[in-house]
Amino acid sequence: MLDDAYINSTISIDPHKRKIYIFFIHRYIDHFLRLFSVAPQIAPFSISEEPANWGEQVSAMCSILKGDLPIEIRWSLNGEIITRLNHPDVIITNTGKKTSVLTIESVTARHAGEYSCVASNLVGSVSRSAVLSVNGIFKKSRMSRRSVTASTLSRKVFRNLSSPITNFNLSILGCRFTS
Fold this sequence. Notes:
Blueprint (H helix, E strand, L loop, with lengths): L3 H8 L6 H19 L4 E2 L9 E2 L4 E9 L5 E6 L2 E2 L8 E7 L2 E6 L8 E8 L4 E8 L1 E2 L14 H7 L12 E4 L2 E4 L1
Parallel strand pairs: 2-10
Antiparallel strand pairs: 1-3, 3-7, 4-5, 4-8, 6-7, 8-9, 11-12
Helix pairs in contact: 1-2
């Protein structure tokens, strides 16, 4: 509770100290608004109940159940705010003052991760998250089914390794690599 001295000090205005009093008035109003304002509350959401298949469309809706306006709604992927620059294939549409929809027209492996909806107003900021898993499509490589020696593999694939690769037997996408 504010005391009378605090309230009375904001009422009297000395021309030389006008800026100081205006600061106290703004501080009082801000304190008053925070006492009676409501922070945002986000409804639970999911992106996909099961892993999405490569190329499918996925979407998620962030709905604010409570909270005083104005409310800013943002989306992030693995902690990074989603923008048109860093994720041009992710569409974010605000369908109202308290609702935002995230849509990916054709999901790929780079879309997999934790999506968070962050809602902020004058009182505070809250977030909810959901995980998107993506099933991949793996195409068979053009390499024929032939053996590749360790020296060939180390020259072509592992150029940056300091020691040669020895004694391995690996099968990837139908190609067999042996040493």
